[in-house]
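hiii so my PI (J.) wants the whole complex modelled not just the main chain, which honestly fair. so below is everything: two entries, each one labled with what it is. i double checked the lines twice but i was tired so who knows lol
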Amino acid sequence: MTTPRKQIHLAAHFPGVNNTTVWSDPRSGSHIEFSSFAHLARTAERAKFDFLFLAEGLRLREQNGQIYDLDVVGRPDTFTVLAALAAVTDRLGLAGTINSTFNEPYEVARQFASLDHLSGGRAAWNVVTSWDAFTGENFRRGGFLPQEARYERARTFLQTAWELFDSWRGDEIVADKESGVFLTDPGAGRFAHSDAHFGISGQFTVPRSPQGRPVIFQAGDSEEGREFAASSADAIFSRHGTLEDGQAFYADVKGRLARYGRSPDQLLILPAATFVLGDTDADAQELAREVRFQQVSGQTAIKFLEQLWNRDLSGYDPDGPLPDIDPDPGENTIARGRASVRMHRDPLAIAAQWRARAEAGNLSIRELIIEVTGRQTFVGAPATVADAINTLVQADASDGFILVPHITPGGLDEFADRVVPLLQERGVFRTDYKGSTLREHLGLAPLPAGTAAGREAAS
Amino acid sequence: MLIAARVAPVTRHIGLLPSVVVTHTEPFHAAKAIATLDYVSAGRAGVRVRVSASSHEAAHFGRRDVPRPNLRDRDLRDRDDPAVRELTAGLFDEATDYVEVMRRLWDSWEDDAEIRDAATGRFIDRDKLHYIDFAGDYFSVKGPSITPRPPQGQPVVSALGHGPVPCRLIGRSADVGFVTPRDAGGARDLVAEVRAAQAAAGRAEDTLHVLGDLVVFLDEDAAAAAGRKRRLDDRAGQQYVSDAAVFTGTPGQLADLLQDWQLAGLSGFRLRPGVIPDDLEAITRGLVPELQRRGAFRTAYAAGTLRGLLGLGRPANRYAPAGRSSS
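here's the output for the full assembly
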């Protein structure tokens, strides 16, 4: 007897506004037109993926005080695209990133409950926090939340939203023409919530949706983010896609669940992953190299270097050596609206590493940036990629992957046609949807009425 | 908003105008949502802006007290009460700012801002993206939008006006105003009020449609239509009333009324079916053929966009130097 194999979960990430997305390729289409979103969603659904994922950024990025122009710029509104996609798909989950800082719980809850109704139970919410005054300049609320208050607000935001979702049990509408009774309980939807961040009350206007509430995603990597996910999320969009790193993250986060009375299967770990396919492994490696050069143009390489150096380096030749000067260790002011910049916690040390690496390999600025910025997660012939994905999942480095194609909108087509059938042959990926809701695709038990949190409140 | 987006891919010609409550929401979110609706509908988006003076809606958001506590016991329909007048004026001034911000955000990308210039590695020409730098009494918004200029350039903006203050909003900011006349004379007065507000805003030359709102109960004979409404009234234990006039009668009688009110200056009508789907079907199967027989309503769509259907051209971009806009 063999141990039942873990089933892999797969999702599609619409290509983002960063240099992973190759816009210079002749096959690259619009990032705004609905047809591009419909194409990717239909490919994902044809391949029986769990869901499509949309990211969000509420202010255009800037560098050196100017709008950053080297990557794809601009995107449509998340809710509007997902609601329209509900019309052209039947089973695919629809996951949207919605900020908890520049929205209010009532309107977010209303929109997600509506999306869940309009899609027949396929909505998911990636809860993110943004706290910078830079983005705040586009909003009534304005900036800025100190780091320690971010997750505090996110937690109470989610708690408040759950109270709104739970304000309907789901059996109140009878609409009985004979008796003239529409609602069994005239108090359906009533809510009152008060804490340090939100004080709201009234009657929630959207009856209970098919899933009870959207599936909750969390994407932050910090200690607070992991704890938030363990307490409140159904899935984590992680950045730990390699074997050892993935296993460590997986064990860490799943190990936190018991404290909240949750079991390990109640939180899925889904790292982001990129891929390059070829007929042979050698073909794929060659193609992956070409893609890396498309992703990191000479201009892009200089901009990346500036983000670490925190200086204007526009005078440097991307095909020449690294600057002799050191990074400016002060507050990073060169790039704004970009999460990756905040990860350069010790610029001087990283610059030293980069210099050593460039000297050892005799690398130009562009070659170095290609080396040190994200390489493709999966590169190879379809069978190689299928095996790599399966190995990682079976080894508990993840429960599946959120795949980020580098071409819009056709970048997933080849994966759907050539890799998914191999995973299906191996018995580790569904050949058809068994349920209709995203919770069912993810193997999450239905929520009993009135329990959006899915558990007793944590002490 | 989401319902409009959900039906956009399954319709081809009809315009879609979701309502946005401007008192409690973010103009930045609304502008990109409407722009995106314009993309998913290939140029059929509009928006109806609505203010909210009710304290129970304010409590849903918890951001501010509307109306302020000292007005809680006032009758907000009492236009002679100076405190109510001040509240209303403030809410509608905010709505005017809100529309201004949406319109600037829609223009904050020039149409040809996306260049994909491989030689310089630039995806956009950032000189064709514009900060809107709006700062008003109620909010400030930096811009540019995260969403490029929508297919129509400017989606259609509409508002419902029951009095002089909302009429001023329509005159200053809208492409379509909805009004609620009781009869042809009332329609004439309301159209005159909107035209005066339009002229006062310096927009006399712009196309601004005034549409009449009507609740309709239709049947093959007038008595049957009235009977249908009466049965519902009996069931509810009170007579159904609306901010708009309630019509009962035949499709032919309704066609007579609409043509009569059209002569009073209305461009058209927003019909509210009394019962869904019965009265909606009576409109599409009874009223529409009747109007078509009279040569008073289109038999096919003559334009692909909502602006086109309303006879509104695609506007130039306010930020594009003259001669540079591709519109």
